Amino acid sequence: MTKLYKDFLWGSATAAYQCEGAWNEGGKGLGEWDVFSHENPLNINGATGDVSCDFYHRYREDIDMLSQGHQNTYRFSISWARILPNGRGKVNKEGIDFYNKVIDYCLAKGVEPNVTLFHYDLPNTIALEGGFENRNTIEAFVEYAKVCFKVFGDRVKLWVTINEPKYYAYCSNIVGNYPPNHKQDFQRYFTVVYNEAVASAQAIAAYHEMGLHGKIGIVHDSSNVEIAPECKHPEEVYLKADMFYNGIILNTAMKGELPGALIPFLKELGVNDSFIRFEDMITFKKGIIDFLGLNVYNRFYVTDYSEGETEIYHNNKGAKSKMKEGIRLKNMYETTDSPNTKRNLWGREIYPKCMYNTLMEIKNKYGEFPVYITENGHGMYETPDDNGYVSDDDRIEMMQGYIDYMFKAMEDGCDVRGYYAWSTMDLYSWVNGYEKRYGLVRVDFENDNKRYPKKSYYWFKDLIDQYQKENS
Ligand code: BGP
Fold first, then answer.
1. Considering the entire predicted model, what is its pTM?
2. How far is the CA of 50 from the centre of ligand 1 (A)?
3. Which atom of ligand 1 has the smallest separation from the CA of 167?
4. Which strands make up the sheet holding 333-335, listed edge to edge?
5. Which of 428, 429, 432, 438 for a ligand 1 pocket mutation test, highest count of atoms within 8 Å of Cβ?
6. How many whole angstroms separate alpha carbon 289 and alpha carbon 270?
7. How far, in Å, CA of 54 to CA of 428, rounded?
8. Model confidence pLDDT, tens digit, residues 62-99
Protein backbone atom coordinates (compact mmCIF):
# COMPACT_ATOMS: atom_id res chain seq x y z
CA MET A 1 0.00 0.00 0.00
CA THR A 2 1.24 3.50 -0.72
CA LYS A 3 0.74 6.31 1.78
CA LEU A 4 -2.84 7.48 1.50
CA TYR A 5 -4.77 9.30 4.23
CA LYS A 6 -3.73 9.36 7.87
CA ASP A 7 -7.09 9.81 9.59
CA PHE A 8 -8.94 7.34 7.40
CA LEU A 9 -11.99 5.80 9.07
CA TRP A 10 -12.39 2.03 8.85
CA GLY A 11 -15.61 0.50 10.03
CA SER A 12 -18.81 -1.28 9.20
CA ALA A 13 -22.48 -0.44 8.92
CA THR A 14 -26.01 -1.53 9.86
CA ALA A 15 -29.49 -0.01 9.70
CA ALA A 16 -32.15 0.17 12.43
CA TYR A 17 -34.90 -2.02 10.97
CA GLN A 18 -32.39 -4.59 9.78
CA CYS A 19 -30.71 -5.19 13.15
CA GLU A 20 -32.48 -3.71 16.16
CA GLY A 21 -35.46 -6.01 16.59
CA ALA A 22 -37.51 -4.82 19.61
CA TRP A 23 -40.13 -3.70 17.09
CA ASN A 24 -42.73 -3.00 19.76
CA GLU A 25 -40.50 -2.21 22.75
CA GLY A 26 -39.25 0.96 24.35
CA GLY A 27 -42.18 3.12 23.25
CA LYS A 28 -41.39 2.70 19.55
CA GLY A 29 -44.21 3.51 17.14
CA LEU A 30 -45.25 1.15 14.38
CA GLY A 31 -43.09 1.30 11.26
CA GLU A 32 -44.14 0.76 7.64
CA TRP A 33 -41.79 -2.24 7.47
CA ASP A 34 -43.39 -3.78 10.60
CA VAL A 35 -46.74 -3.71 8.85
CA PHE A 36 -45.37 -4.92 5.52
CA SER A 37 -43.45 -7.83 7.05
CA HIS A 38 -46.35 -8.95 9.23
CA GLU A 39 -49.22 -8.64 6.80
CA ASN A 40 -48.24 -8.33 3.18
CA PRO A 41 -48.19 -11.42 0.90
CA LEU A 42 -45.46 -9.66 -1.09
CA ASN A 43 -43.15 -10.41 1.83
CA ILE A 44 -42.31 -13.52 -0.15
CA ASN A 45 -39.81 -15.08 2.25
CA GLY A 46 -41.98 -14.44 5.30
CA ALA A 47 -39.15 -12.96 7.40
CA THR A 48 -39.60 -9.97 9.70
CA GLY A 49 -37.31 -7.62 11.59
CA ASP A 50 -39.22 -8.25 14.85
CA VAL A 51 -36.15 -9.69 16.59
CA SER A 52 -33.46 -9.81 13.89
CA CYS A 53 -30.05 -10.06 15.59
CA ASP A 54 -31.43 -8.20 18.61
CA PHE A 55 -29.02 -5.26 18.47
CA TYR A 56 -31.44 -3.35 20.71
CA HIS A 57 -30.43 -5.58 23.61
CA ARG A 58 -26.95 -6.59 22.46
CA TYR A 59 -25.46 -3.35 21.10
CA ARG A 60 -22.58 -3.46 23.60
CA GLU A 61 -21.48 -6.87 22.35
CA ASP A 62 -21.59 -5.70 18.73
CA ILE A 63 -19.68 -2.50 19.40
CA ASP A 64 -17.13 -4.45 21.49
CA MET A 65 -16.59 -6.87 18.65
CA LEU A 66 -16.27 -4.05 16.13
CA SER A 67 -13.70 -2.21 18.22
CA GLN A 68 -11.78 -5.42 18.95
CA GLY A 69 -11.59 -5.81 15.18
CA HIS A 70 -9.74 -2.43 15.18
CA GLN A 71 -12.60 -0.65 13.43
CA ASN A 72 -12.70 3.00 14.50
CA THR A 73 -16.13 3.94 13.18
CA TYR A 74 -19.65 2.51 13.18
CA ARG A 75 -22.39 3.59 10.79
CA PHE A 76 -25.92 2.96 12.05
CA SER A 77 -29.33 4.48 11.55
CA ILE A 78 -31.92 5.85 13.93
CA SER A 79 -35.44 4.51 13.75
CA TRP A 80 -37.65 7.56 13.16
CA ALA A 81 -40.58 5.80 14.90
CA ARG A 82 -38.43 5.14 17.99
CA ILE A 83 -37.84 8.88 18.38
CA LEU A 84 -41.24 10.16 17.22
CA PRO A 85 -43.69 7.23 17.49
CA ASN A 86 -46.28 9.11 15.43
CA GLY A 87 -43.76 10.49 12.97
CA ARG A 88 -44.15 14.02 14.37
CA GLY A 89 -45.14 15.62 17.65
CA LYS A 90 -44.56 13.65 20.86
CA VAL A 91 -40.92 12.64 21.47
CA ASN A 92 -40.24 9.21 22.99
CA LYS A 93 -37.71 9.60 25.78
CA GLU A 94 -36.92 5.88 25.85
CA GLY A 95 -35.89 6.06 22.21
CA ILE A 96 -33.58 9.00 22.92
CA ASP A 97 -32.11 7.07 25.87
CA PHE A 98 -31.40 4.04 23.69
CA TYR A 99 -29.45 5.96 21.05
CA ASN A 100 -27.66 7.96 23.74
CA LYS A 101 -26.43 4.66 25.15
CA VAL A 102 -25.30 3.46 21.72
CA ILE A 103 -23.50 6.73 20.94
CA ASP A 104 -21.85 6.93 24.36
CA TYR A 105 -20.75 3.31 24.17
CA CYS A 106 -19.18 3.92 20.73
CA LEU A 107 -17.30 6.94 22.04
CA ALA A 108 -16.11 5.07 25.12
CA LYS A 109 -14.61 2.46 22.77
CA GLY A 110 -12.94 5.01 20.49
CA VAL A 111 -15.48 4.38 17.72
CA GLU A 112 -16.72 7.38 15.69
CA PRO A 113 -20.52 7.18 15.27
CA ASN A 114 -21.77 7.92 11.76
CA VAL A 115 -25.52 8.33 12.07
CA THR A 116 -28.15 8.04 9.33
CA LEU A 117 -31.55 9.59 9.99
CA PHE A 118 -33.60 7.68 7.45
CA HIS A 119 -32.74 4.23 6.15
CA TYR A 120 -35.98 3.08 4.42
CA ASP A 121 -38.02 2.78 7.67
CA LEU A 122 -40.89 5.28 7.65
CA PRO A 123 -43.13 5.57 10.71
CA ASN A 124 -46.41 3.95 9.69
CA THR A 125 -48.40 7.14 10.34
CA ILE A 126 -46.25 8.95 7.78
CA ALA A 127 -46.50 6.02 5.34
CA LEU A 128 -50.30 6.16 5.59
CA GLU A 129 -50.17 9.81 4.55
CA GLY A 130 -48.30 8.78 1.40
CA GLY A 131 -44.72 8.85 2.69
CA PHE A 132 -42.37 10.94 0.60
CA GLU A 133 -44.93 11.25 -2.17
CA ASN A 134 -46.67 13.72 0.14
CA ARG A 135 -44.90 17.07 0.51
CA ASN A 136 -45.93 17.26 4.18
CA THR A 137 -43.43 14.48 4.87
CA ILE A 138 -40.62 16.94 4.16
CA GLU A 139 -41.65 19.04 7.13
CA ALA A 140 -42.09 15.99 9.36
CA PHE A 141 -38.63 14.72 8.39
CA VAL A 142 -37.01 18.05 9.19
CA GLU A 143 -38.80 18.15 12.56
CA TYR A 144 -37.43 14.67 13.32
CA ALA A 145 -33.94 15.61 12.09
CA LYS A 146 -33.85 18.68 14.33
CA VAL A 147 -34.82 16.62 17.39
CA CYS A 148 -31.87 14.30 16.65
CA PHE A 149 -29.42 17.14 15.98
CA LYS A 150 -30.45 18.76 19.27
CA VAL A 151 -30.11 15.71 21.49
CA PHE A 152 -27.23 13.85 19.83
CA GLY A 153 -25.44 16.68 17.99
CA ASP A 154 -22.98 17.39 20.80
CA ARG A 155 -21.39 13.96 20.26
CA VAL A 156 -22.25 12.85 16.72
CA LYS A 157 -19.91 14.51 14.22
CA LEU A 158 -20.93 12.60 11.09
CA TRP A 159 -24.55 12.70 9.96
CA VAL A 160 -26.36 11.30 6.96
CA THR A 161 -29.82 12.60 6.09
CA ILE A 162 -31.15 9.81 3.86
CA ASN A 163 -29.74 6.44 2.85
CA GLU A 164 -30.05 5.72 -0.88
CA PRO A 165 -33.00 7.98 -1.72
CA LYS A 166 -32.98 6.71 -5.31
CA TYR A 167 -32.80 2.96 -4.58
CA TYR A 168 -35.47 3.28 -1.89
CA ALA A 169 -37.77 5.10 -4.34
CA TYR A 170 -36.90 2.59 -7.07
CA CYS A 171 -37.79 -0.48 -5.02
CA SER A 172 -40.93 1.10 -3.56
CA ASN A 173 -42.29 2.49 -6.84
CA ILE A 174 -40.72 0.75 -9.83
CA VAL A 175 -39.83 -2.80 -8.75
CA GLY A 176 -42.63 -2.89 -6.18
CA ASN A 177 -40.83 -5.20 -3.78
CA TYR A 178 -40.57 -2.63 -0.94
CA PRO A 179 -43.63 -1.08 0.69
CA PRO A 180 -45.88 0.53 -0.48
CA ASN A 181 -45.22 -1.81 -3.45
CA HIS A 182 -46.08 0.34 -6.46
CA LYS A 183 -44.95 -1.19 -9.73
CA GLN A 184 -43.66 0.84 -12.66
CA ASP A 185 -45.13 4.01 -11.18
CA PHE A 186 -42.71 6.53 -12.68
CA GLN A 187 -44.77 9.50 -11.54
CA ARG A 188 -44.52 8.39 -7.93
CA TYR A 189 -40.86 7.41 -8.29
CA PHE A 190 -39.78 10.86 -9.44
CA THR A 191 -42.03 12.61 -6.91
CA VAL A 192 -40.51 10.58 -4.07
CA VAL A 193 -36.88 11.06 -5.22
CA TYR A 194 -37.49 14.79 -5.63
CA ASN A 195 -39.19 15.23 -2.24
CA GLU A 196 -36.39 13.24 -0.58
CA ALA A 197 -33.86 15.58 -2.19
CA VAL A 198 -35.77 18.60 -0.84
CA ALA A 199 -36.12 17.01 2.63
CA SER A 200 -32.41 16.22 2.73
CA ALA A 201 -31.45 19.74 1.65
CA GLN A 202 -33.78 21.29 4.24
CA ALA A 203 -32.35 19.10 7.00
CA ILE A 204 -28.79 20.00 5.92
CA ALA A 205 -29.62 23.70 5.95
CA ALA A 206 -31.18 23.30 9.43
CA TYR A 207 -28.09 21.46 10.69
CA HIS A 208 -25.78 24.18 9.40
CA GLU A 209 -27.97 26.88 10.95
CA MET A 210 -27.74 25.18 14.36
CA GLY A 211 -23.97 25.80 14.37
CA LEU A 212 -23.04 22.29 15.51
CA HIS A 213 -19.52 21.06 15.04
CA GLY A 214 -19.93 18.18 12.66
CA LYS A 215 -20.40 17.30 9.01
CA ILE A 216 -23.54 16.24 7.21
CA GLY A 217 -24.11 14.47 3.92
CA ILE A 218 -26.37 12.14 1.98
CA VAL A 219 -25.74 8.49 1.01
CA HIS A 220 -26.24 7.68 -2.65
CA ASP A 221 -26.20 4.15 -4.02
CA SER A 222 -23.49 4.62 -6.54
CA SER A 223 -24.93 3.88 -9.96
CA ASN A 224 -22.28 4.73 -12.46
CA VAL A 225 -23.43 4.07 -15.98
CA GLU A 226 -21.22 2.16 -18.41
CA ILE A 227 -22.09 1.70 -22.05
CA ALA A 228 -21.90 -1.71 -23.72
CA PRO A 229 -19.80 -1.73 -26.94
CA GLU A 230 -22.76 -2.74 -29.11
CA CYS A 231 -24.69 0.42 -28.13
CA LYS A 232 -25.59 2.47 -31.23
CA HIS A 233 -26.34 5.78 -29.45
CA PRO A 234 -23.87 5.81 -26.57
CA GLU A 235 -24.12 9.50 -25.67
CA GLU A 236 -27.90 9.57 -25.64
CA VAL A 237 -28.15 6.32 -23.70
CA TYR A 238 -25.58 7.52 -21.17
CA LEU A 239 -27.39 10.81 -20.56
CA LYS A 240 -30.74 9.13 -20.03
CA ALA A 241 -29.53 6.32 -17.81
CA ASP A 242 -27.41 8.71 -15.75
CA MET A 243 -30.37 11.06 -15.36
CA PHE A 244 -32.56 8.18 -14.25
CA TYR A 245 -30.14 6.83 -11.64
CA ASN A 246 -28.05 9.76 -10.48
CA GLY A 247 -29.18 13.13 -11.80
CA ILE A 248 -31.57 14.46 -9.17
CA ILE A 249 -29.71 13.29 -6.08
CA LEU A 250 -26.13 14.12 -7.07
CA ASN A 251 -26.88 17.46 -8.72
CA THR A 252 -29.02 18.80 -5.89
CA ALA A 253 -26.72 17.51 -3.14
CA MET A 254 -23.40 18.55 -4.73
CA LYS A 255 -24.26 21.54 -6.91
CA GLY A 256 -27.40 22.79 -5.19
CA GLU A 257 -29.44 22.64 -8.39
CA LEU A 258 -31.57 20.34 -10.51
CA PRO A 259 -30.01 18.86 -13.64
CA GLY A 260 -30.70 21.09 -16.64
CA ALA A 261 -32.15 18.31 -18.79
CA LEU A 262 -34.55 16.99 -16.14
CA ILE A 263 -37.77 18.58 -17.41
CA PRO A 264 -37.55 17.28 -21.02
CA PHE A 265 -36.51 13.88 -19.66
CA LEU A 266 -39.60 13.74 -17.43
CA LYS A 267 -41.77 14.78 -20.37
CA GLU A 268 -40.36 11.97 -22.48
CA LEU A 269 -41.26 9.51 -19.73
CA GLY A 270 -44.77 10.95 -19.47
CA VAL A 271 -44.11 12.21 -15.93
CA ASN A 272 -45.90 15.39 -14.84
CA ASP A 273 -43.37 17.77 -13.27
CA SER A 274 -45.82 19.66 -11.03
CA PHE A 275 -43.99 18.39 -7.91
CA ILE A 276 -41.12 20.79 -8.72
CA ARG A 277 -41.50 24.07 -6.82
CA PHE A 278 -39.68 27.30 -7.45
CA GLU A 279 -38.86 27.84 -3.75
CA ASP A 280 -37.02 24.52 -3.63
CA MET A 281 -34.27 25.96 -5.83
CA ILE A 282 -33.28 28.17 -2.90
CA THR A 283 -33.43 25.17 -0.53
CA PHE A 284 -31.09 23.18 -2.80
CA LYS A 285 -28.56 26.02 -2.76
CA LYS A 286 -28.68 26.16 1.05
CA GLY A 287 -28.57 22.40 1.45
CA ILE A 288 -25.30 21.43 -0.23
CA ILE A 289 -23.66 18.47 1.50
CA ASP A 290 -20.38 18.55 3.43
CA PHE A 291 -19.52 15.06 2.20
CA LEU A 292 -20.92 12.40 -0.07
CA GLY A 293 -21.59 8.88 1.17
CA LEU A 294 -21.44 6.22 -1.53
CA ASN A 295 -22.78 2.71 -1.18
CA VAL A 296 -20.81 0.82 -3.79
CA TYR A 297 -22.11 -2.55 -4.99
CA ASN A 298 -22.50 -2.43 -8.75
CA ARG A 299 -22.62 -0.37 -11.92
CA PHE A 300 -25.32 -0.05 -14.59
CA TYR A 301 -24.14 -1.62 -17.80
CA VAL A 302 -26.50 -0.44 -20.51
CA THR A 303 -27.30 -0.38 -24.21
CA ASP A 304 -30.08 0.94 -26.48
CA TYR A 305 -33.62 -0.37 -26.14
CA SER A 306 -35.86 0.72 -28.96
CA GLU A 307 -38.30 -2.12 -29.47
CA GLY A 308 -40.50 -3.45 -26.71
CA GLU A 309 -42.22 -2.38 -23.53
CA THR A 310 -40.81 -1.28 -20.19
CA GLU A 311 -39.86 -4.25 -18.04
CA ILE A 312 -38.34 -4.57 -14.60
CA TYR A 313 -36.68 -7.69 -13.31
CA HIS A 314 -35.41 -8.38 -9.83
CA ASN A 315 -34.46 -11.36 -7.69
CA ASN A 316 -35.46 -11.69 -4.04
CA LYS A 317 -35.32 -15.49 -4.18
CA GLY A 318 -31.59 -15.99 -4.65
CA ALA A 319 -30.59 -19.46 -5.87
CA LYS A 320 -34.27 -20.46 -6.08
CA SER A 321 -34.56 -18.24 -9.14
CA LYS A 322 -32.51 -17.65 -12.27
CA MET A 323 -33.71 -14.04 -12.43
CA LYS A 324 -31.16 -11.26 -12.91
CA GLU A 325 -31.49 -7.69 -11.71
CA GLY A 326 -32.25 -5.12 -14.42
CA ILE A 327 -34.54 -2.78 -16.30
CA ARG A 328 -35.76 -2.13 -19.86
CA LEU A 329 -37.02 1.38 -20.35
CA LYS A 330 -39.19 1.76 -23.43
CA ASN A 331 -37.44 3.75 -26.20
CA MET A 332 -34.51 4.54 -23.91
CA TYR A 333 -32.11 1.88 -22.70
CA GLU A 334 -31.79 -1.53 -21.10
CA THR A 335 -29.32 -3.02 -18.67
CA THR A 336 -27.38 -5.77 -20.37
CA ASP A 337 -24.97 -8.62 -19.73
CA SER A 338 -21.24 -8.39 -19.88
CA PRO A 339 -19.93 -11.87 -20.71
CA ASN A 340 -16.92 -11.70 -18.41
CA THR A 341 -18.63 -10.24 -15.36
CA LYS A 342 -19.79 -12.58 -12.60
CA ARG A 343 -23.11 -12.14 -10.83
CA ASN A 344 -24.08 -13.07 -7.30
CA LEU A 345 -26.88 -15.56 -6.68
CA TRP A 346 -29.38 -12.70 -6.50
CA GLY A 347 -28.58 -11.76 -10.09
CA ARG A 348 -26.46 -8.65 -9.39
CA GLU A 349 -23.12 -7.97 -11.08
CA ILE A 350 -19.93 -8.34 -9.04
CA TYR A 351 -17.68 -5.74 -10.60
CA PRO A 352 -14.94 -4.34 -8.31
CA LYS A 353 -13.74 -1.80 -10.87
CA CYS A 354 -17.01 0.12 -10.48
CA MET A 355 -15.48 1.44 -7.23
CA TYR A 356 -12.77 3.23 -9.22
CA ASN A 357 -15.04 4.27 -12.05
CA THR A 358 -17.70 5.79 -9.85
CA LEU A 359 -15.22 7.71 -7.67
CA MET A 360 -13.38 9.11 -10.69
CA GLU A 361 -16.58 9.99 -12.52
CA ILE A 362 -17.98 11.89 -9.54
CA LYS A 363 -14.68 13.74 -9.03
CA ASN A 364 -14.55 14.70 -12.70
CA LYS A 365 -18.16 15.89 -12.72
CA TYR A 366 -18.49 17.57 -9.34
CA GLY A 367 -14.95 18.42 -8.32
CA GLU A 368 -13.15 17.70 -5.04
CA PHE A 369 -15.60 16.50 -2.41
CA PRO A 370 -14.86 14.41 0.66
CA VAL A 371 -16.34 10.96 0.08
CA TYR A 372 -17.00 8.08 2.45
CA ILE A 373 -17.65 4.61 1.10
CA THR A 374 -20.61 4.10 3.40
CA GLU A 375 -21.35 0.52 2.27
CA ASN A 376 -19.61 -2.20 0.34
CA GLY A 377 -20.16 -5.89 0.85
CA HIS A 378 -21.15 -9.24 -0.57
CA GLY A 379 -24.37 -11.21 -0.03
CA MET A 380 -23.84 -14.97 0.27
CA TYR A 381 -25.39 -18.20 1.51
CA GLU A 382 -23.14 -19.51 4.27
CA THR A 383 -22.51 -22.79 6.08
CA PRO A 384 -20.53 -22.67 9.32
CA ASP A 385 -18.18 -25.46 10.41
CA ASP A 386 -18.76 -27.47 13.61
CA ASN A 387 -17.37 -24.61 15.69
CA GLY A 388 -19.72 -22.08 14.12
CA TYR A 389 -16.89 -20.53 12.07
CA VAL A 390 -17.53 -19.29 8.52
CA SER A 391 -14.68 -19.22 5.98
CA ASP A 392 -16.11 -16.58 3.70
CA ASP A 393 -13.28 -16.48 1.16
CA ASP A 394 -15.52 -15.21 -1.64
CA ARG A 395 -16.44 -12.16 0.43
CA ILE A 396 -12.79 -11.46 1.23
CA GLU A 397 -11.76 -11.74 -2.41
CA MET A 398 -14.60 -9.51 -3.50
CA MET A 399 -14.08 -6.80 -0.88
CA GLN A 400 -10.31 -6.80 -1.36
CA GLY A 401 -10.93 -6.12 -5.06
CA TYR A 402 -13.19 -3.14 -4.32
CA ILE A 403 -10.80 -1.76 -1.69
CA ASP A 404 -7.84 -2.01 -4.08
CA TYR A 405 -9.78 0.04 -6.59
CA MET A 406 -10.67 2.55 -3.86
CA PHE A 407 -6.94 2.96 -3.12
CA LYS A 408 -6.26 3.42 -6.80
CA ALA A 409 -8.88 6.20 -6.98
CA MET A 410 -7.30 7.86 -3.93
CA GLU A 411 -3.91 7.71 -5.59
CA ASP A 412 -5.53 9.37 -8.61
CA GLY A 413 -6.79 12.26 -6.51
CA CYS A 414 -10.16 11.23 -5.03
CA ASP A 415 -10.65 12.51 -1.50
CA VAL A 416 -11.92 9.32 0.18
CA ARG A 417 -12.07 9.61 3.98
CA GLY A 418 -13.45 6.28 5.10
CA TYR A 419 -14.74 2.82 4.22
CA TYR A 420 -17.61 0.90 5.83
CA ALA A 421 -18.15 -2.79 5.24
CA TRP A 422 -21.76 -3.85 4.92
CA SER A 423 -22.48 -5.26 7.41
CA THR A 424 -21.14 -5.29 10.98
CA MET A 425 -22.90 -8.60 11.68
CA ASP A 426 -25.50 -10.72 9.90
CA LEU A 427 -28.88 -9.04 9.81
CA TYR A 428 -32.17 -8.86 7.95
CA SER A 429 -31.77 -8.35 4.20
CA TRP A 430 -34.79 -6.45 2.84
CA VAL A 431 -37.41 -8.94 1.52
CA ASN A 432 -34.64 -11.57 1.08
CA GLY A 433 -34.85 -12.48 4.76
CA TYR A 434 -31.94 -13.98 6.70
CA GLU A 435 -30.40 -16.50 4.31
CA LYS A 436 -28.63 -13.80 2.36
CA ARG A 437 -25.79 -12.86 4.68
CA TYR A 438 -23.43 -9.93 4.64
CA GLY A 439 -21.91 -9.79 8.14
CA LEU A 440 -18.26 -9.78 9.16
CA VAL A 441 -19.67 -11.55 12.21
CA ARG A 442 -22.00 -14.52 11.94
CA VAL A 443 -25.24 -14.50 13.91
CA ASP A 444 -26.77 -17.87 14.79
CA PHE A 445 -30.39 -16.80 14.46
CA GLU A 446 -31.60 -20.22 15.67
CA ASN A 447 -29.53 -20.28 18.86
CA ASP A 448 -30.01 -17.16 20.91
CA ASN A 449 -28.42 -14.97 18.23
CA LYS A 450 -24.94 -15.97 19.30
CA ARG A 451 -22.15 -14.07 17.51
CA TYR A 452 -19.14 -15.70 15.78
CA PRO A 453 -16.51 -13.61 13.97
CA LYS A 454 -15.98 -14.88 10.41
CA LYS A 455 -12.76 -15.18 8.46
CA SER A 456 -13.57 -11.81 6.83
CA TYR A 457 -13.66 -10.16 10.27
CA TYR A 458 -10.03 -11.17 10.90
CA TRP A 459 -9.01 -10.32 7.34
CA PHE A 460 -10.55 -6.83 7.76
CA LYS A 461 -8.75 -6.36 11.09
CA ASP A 462 -5.39 -7.24 9.46
CA LEU A 463 -6.08 -4.92 6.54
CA ILE A 464 -6.84 -2.04 8.93
CA ASP A 465 -3.67 -2.78 10.95
CA GLN A 466 -1.54 -2.80 7.85
CA TYR A 467 -3.08 0.45 6.62
CA GLN A 468 -2.52 2.16 9.98
CA LYS A 469 1.07 0.96 10.12
CA GLU A 470 1.85 2.27 6.65
CA ASN A 471 0.03 5.57 7.04
CA SER A 472 0.74 6.69 10.60
C1 BGP B 1 -28.11 -1.33 0.46
C2 BGP B 1 -28.88 -0.95 1.70
C3 BGP B 1 -28.63 -1.82 2.89
C4 BGP B 1 -28.41 -3.28 2.57
C5 BGP B 1 -27.58 -3.53 1.33
C6 BGP B 1 -27.65 -4.96 0.84
O7 BGP B 1 -28.78 -0.91 -0.68
O8 BGP B 1 -28.57 0.38 2.07
O9 BGP B 1 -29.65 -1.59 3.81
O10 BGP B 1 -29.51 -4.04 2.70
O11 BGP B 1 -27.97 -2.70 0.25
O12 BGP B 1 -28.84 -5.14 0.12
P13 BGP B 1 -29.77 -6.39 0.25
O14 BGP B 1 -29.94 -6.63 1.72
O15 BGP B 1 -31.03 -6.01 -0.43
O16 BGP B 1 -29.06 -7.49 -0.43
1. 0.97
2. 18
3. 7
4. 225-227, 300-304, 333-335, 326-329, 311-313
5. 429
6. 31
7. 11
8. 999 999 999 999 999 999 999 999 999 999 999 999 99
